[in-house]
Design brief:
By secondary structure, the protein is an alpha/beta fold. It is built from 13 helices and 13 strands. The chain is elongated and about 85 Å long. Bound molecules: alpha-D-ribofuranose.
Length: 352
């Protein structure tokens, strides 16, 4: 096909996409010259540059960013793989990642896996097929073998929120065990005499660590019995169901610590349905620090994770790794803080 015909087809919209080869033919230069003009690297004389730019305009040529990335070895994209973007913890985390990535010239592909192992693995494969420069991963099925494979394939990775093991990759997360102990200390300080814990799904490392921290904090008390533990699932409904079962076993509980804020929201709703006053009869404390805990009545006391800091630090570490900095594989564990509100007795204040 003659280039002029191609130009006509472009004009009429009948031609889908001109290529760098078409531009080179129309301008009567090499593909390398067109590439130098597009990427503004290397010398091209004025007359030739004008011919190339005219051809680009006539053909409405759009450089393919993936092809361009392949040429330079960088696509300036990253994948953010999360288990549940409907949970405000993860959407607030995604906000921080996108702010940090876009301020450094990177585009983020957001992948939601519903904590499904196959979806997690499938997304990792799809993101590799799209030549992302690196992966930010929060989930619980990425274990040592998968991480070693990504290392061998030289795909930079930072794991968020849940450490898959000791120092096998870069991790950014909160100090969950200490956070659970901080929650128990607060309930004891305000006078609770019998404290229960609604814990998250035990296949998730953060839920296991908070349960461990809770047990370490209460095991010496005479009132403690394992029947003060009730399984939840990190959802609002899970918190509602768990508190109902708990109070059937222990109607004299006067303090409840939930493994995340969504379960605390559910527990609060159930306690209201049971006409139990919070905090007068039962004090309630959650974990995460999501904004929803500020709109309930009473507002919910919580152990706030530095969600935004986790997201932005993880993103900056990943970009450093993408751009060649040699970073030690280590877990960056960030402190949490107690945010006291109306669901526990005591004045509103922040304690680290
Ligand atoms: O609310 C979701 C929970 O899953 C958070 O506590 C976060 O740490 C993640 O592990």
């Amino acid at each position: 096909m003659k280039i002029a015909d191609l130009a006509v087809l472009r004009e009429t919209g009948e031609c889908s996409m001109a290529t760098i080869r078409d531009v080179a033919k129309l301008a009567n230069v090499s593909i390398a010259t067109v590439s130098r003009v597009i990427n503004q690297n290397g010398y091209v004389n004025g007359e030739t540059k004008k011919k190339v730019n005219n051809a680009i305009e006539l053909l409405k040529y759009k450089p393919n960013s993936i092809a361009k990335g392949l040429a330079s070895g960088k696509t300036k994209t990253m994948a953010l793989i999360l288990p549940d973007i409907s949970n405000p913890f993860f959407s607030e985390l995604a906000r921080a990642v996108e702010d940090s990535a876009s301020s450094q010239g990177y585009t983020v592909f957001l992948c939601n896996t519903d904590s499904d192992t196959n979806k997690e693995k499938d997304y990792i494969r799809k993101m590799k097929d799209r030549f992302v420069d690196g992966i930010l991963f929060a989930g619980h099925t990425l274990q040592e073998p998968e991480i070693k494979t990504l290392e061998e394939e030289k795909i930079p990775l930072v794991v968020l929120d849940r450490a898959p093991g000791e120092d096998i990759c870069l991790v950014v997360r909160s100090n969950n065990r200490e956070g659970a102990k901080l929650a128990v200390r607060h309930l004891l300080e305000i006078g609770c005499n019998k404290i229960a814990h609604i814990y998250g799904p035990q296949e998730v490392a953060t839920a296991r660590e908070r349960l461990l921290g809770f047990e370490e904090a209460v095991k010496e008390f005479s009132w403690y019995t394992p029947s003060l533990l009730e399984q939840g699932d990190f959802t609002i409904k899970g918190g509602m169901d768990a508190v109902g079962l708990l109070l059937k076993r222990h109607p004299d509980v006067d303090g409840i610590f939930t493994g995340n804020d969504l379960m605390a929201l559910g527990a609060l709703k159930k306690l209201k349905q049971l006409k139990i006053k919070v905090p007068d009869q039962i004090s309630l404390i959650g974990f995460d620090g999501i904004e929803l805990t500020e709109i309930t009545e009473p507002e919910i006391t919580t152990i706030a994770q530095p969600i935004y800091q986790i997201g932005s630090l993880a993103t900056s570490l990943l970009i450093k790794k993408i751009e060649g900095s040699l970073l030690l594989h280590k877990s960056h564990e960030i402190d949490v803080e107690l945010v006291v509100r109306g669901s526990t007795k005591g004045n509103s204040k922040v304690i680290s």
